[in-house]
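Hey team,

Filing this mostly as a record. A colleague (T.K.) asked me to run one chain through the structure pipeline before their review meeting, and I want the input and output archived in the tracker in case anyone asks later how it was produced. No errors, nothing strange. Just documentation.

Input sequence:
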Amino acid sequence: MELCDLYDENRIPTGETHERGERLPQGKYRLVVHVCLFNERNEMLIQLRAKEKRAWPDLWDVSAGGCAQCGEDSRSAAVRETREELGLQIDLAGKRPHLTCNFPGGFDDIYLTQIRSDSIKRLRLQADEVRNARWASEKEILGLRSAGKFIPYRRGFIELLFSIREGFGCICV
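Output structure:
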């Protein structure tokens, strides 16, 4: 059983917890994180979700992600999810999410960071979560999405991830 903290619409903790998978109480929200790992060739590490996953089984997804557990902030949840799902230890010390996307059930903090291409040799996939992982270009990801083989994120969202991977904000400076 996984428990997560609940927040109000302003992202202020309510002091309440919630069991993952259960229906959220009205007006309460949870925190989710996603990590997009890029290499020096402008490719993203993508993962193939396990067939047994309840949500989006057997579809490709961004590098790592999941729900923040009780007492976790988004950064520590992002580091933990990357370590659990991929076996990689990433350093997000002092880093903020590049984006936060609101969704009906909560807040999704999205971290973008770069690792070396050869890091893929060190992957230790969590079998009940991830079936496979590989590097993919923006064009390849959009092709997988169009073919129904990638989680159906908005096309512009995928393009935005690639566009802002090396900096913060929406203005090119």
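Quick notes for T.K.: Helices lie at 74-86, 138-146, 155-163. Residues 43 and 140 are 9 Å apart (CA to CA).
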